[in-house]
Design a protein that fits this description.
Structural class: alpha/beta
Bound molecules: flavin mononucleotide
Largest sheet: 8 strands, parallel, barrel
CATH superfamily: Aldolase class I
CATH architecture: Alpha-Beta Barrel
Shape: globular
CATH class: Alpha Beta
Number of helices: 13
Distance between the termini: 38 Å
Order of helices and strands: EEEHEHEEEHEHHHEHEHEHEHHHH
Oligomer: single chain
Length: about 375
């Protein structure tokens, strides 16, 4: 049997295999952000489907960082009982779960009266409708503390790890990118300064959870357009963050461009050369760090998953859309059915979120008709 199905140790966390469910916001929380019965069902199915580590969808660390109404929030102790039920459900099925800690930064929705807060206010033709303010030093310190407190609550609720959302469009990516971060103080300018938020958050988390608890980051190592974060800087940032003490790096896109191929949600992945589209970046990160590296983005078949690990491009194989379509995919592969994932990367699941609906796979809807 493939070595992907052998147990894997990540900072003392024993995973039953090397497969991760990459963070996937389901749009399925209660209207007030509490864990819902639909979420319980989704996580139970993923754990029963033998996913090694399930990373939650974005969980905001406070209300200022919220993006969606139905998003779970770890901004207060009130969230602990609901999250505890969810972690117990995953553990009952032999799975492990990490909470993805998130702050939307300048992208915050205005639906509840919060204005976004970004590193600095810049003209951005890619996001012309964003209205937000530049963070003061005090805003940043408060945000750092909020990440620390949220991680403490995640641990108390039984999460096996936490993962910072340091990719795509949100606060860490905004600080890391010279395109959105024009600050001239200790939080901007040099790469050292543009990764300070990432390191200060890690320190605040360690104070709450201790040295032995796995703290991971999903890191965007290149922006999806020219003029933003370069790959060279992104790879150096990855090295710095591993050295600072992050226990696992999942490698993805930095700030999004406007075209699908400039985002993490690439489509039309029929040809094998279009798949695994961030594996090359993960491989480059792996050469520079000693902690486990996960690759995500367009992995649809077991041959590719095996090759990625065999070639030393990554230690863990992470997927999102295929597991929306087939939560039992990993168990199916383990049992010997090597047929590729049925996901066609159409992004209808993502469009569900944009329409404020909970996600499901369009192939199931067609079948139901
Ligand atoms: C519906 C949907 C929700 C997502 N939510 C998150 C999220 O909460 N956090 C995150 O880091 N990435 C999120 N992503 C991105 C995925 O984790 C993943 O990086 C991307 O879809 C590429 O992987 P895939 O080809 O296996 O789907 C989401 C993707 C989809 C389709």
């Amino acid at each position: 049997m493939s070595s992907l199905f052998a147990p894997f140790e990540l900072k003392g966390m024993s995973l039953r295999n090397r497969f991760m469910r990459s963070a996937t916001f389901e749009g399925a929380g209660e209207p007030n952000g509490e864990v819902s019965s639909l979420q319980m069902q989704m996580y139970r199915d993923l754990a029963a489907g033998e996913v090694g580590l399930i990373v939650s969808g974005v969980v905001c660390v406070n209300e200022a960082g919220r993006l969606f109404a139905s998003q779970n929030c770890l901004g207060s102790d009130a969230a602990i009982p609901g999250l505890s039920r969810l972690t117990q459900t995953v553990h009952d099925q032999g799975g492990k779960v990490a909470s993805q800690l998130f702050h939307s930064g300048r992208e915050a929705s205005s639906f509840q009266g919060y204005r976004g807060l970004g590193p600095s206010v810049t003209e951005d033709p890619r996001r012309p409708n964003l209205e937000y303010d530049a963070m003061t030093h005090e805003d940043i310190v408060r945000t750092v503390e909020a990440f620390g407190d949220a991680a403490g609550r995640a641990k108390e609720a039984g999460c096996d790890a936490v993962q910072m959302h340091g990719a795509h469009a949100y606060i860490f990516a905004q600080f890391l990118s010279p395109y959105t971060n024009k600050r001239q103080d200790q939080w901007g300018g040099s790469l050292e300064n543009r990764t300070r938020l990432h390191r200060e958050v890690l320190k605040a988390i360690r104070k709450r959870v201790g040295e032995d608890y796995p703290v991971m980051i999903k890191l965007g190592v290149r922006d999806g357009f020219d003029g933003g974060l370069t790959l060279e800087d992104g790879l150096e940032a990855a090295r710095m963050l591993a050295e600072a003490g992050y226990d696992c790096l999942e490698i993805s896109q930095g700030l999004r461009g406007t075209q699908p191929h400039e985002t993490e949600f690439r489509t039309k992945l029929k040809r094998s050369e279009d798949r695994g589209y961030f594996c090359g970046w993960a491989e480059e990160v792996k050469k520079r760090v000693r902690v486990p590296v996960a690759t995500v983005g367009g992995i649809r078949d077991l041959d590719m998953a095996e090759a990625v690990v065999q070639k030393g491009q990554a230690d863990l194989v992470s997927m999102s859309r295929p597991l929306i379509s087939e939560p039992g995919l990993i168990a199916r592969w383990r049992k010997g059915d090597r047929q590729e994932a049925r996901c066609v990367s159409c992004n209808t699941c993502k469009h569900d979120l944009e329409a404020m609906k909970s996600i499901s796979c369009v192939l199931d809807r067609k079948k139901a008709k």
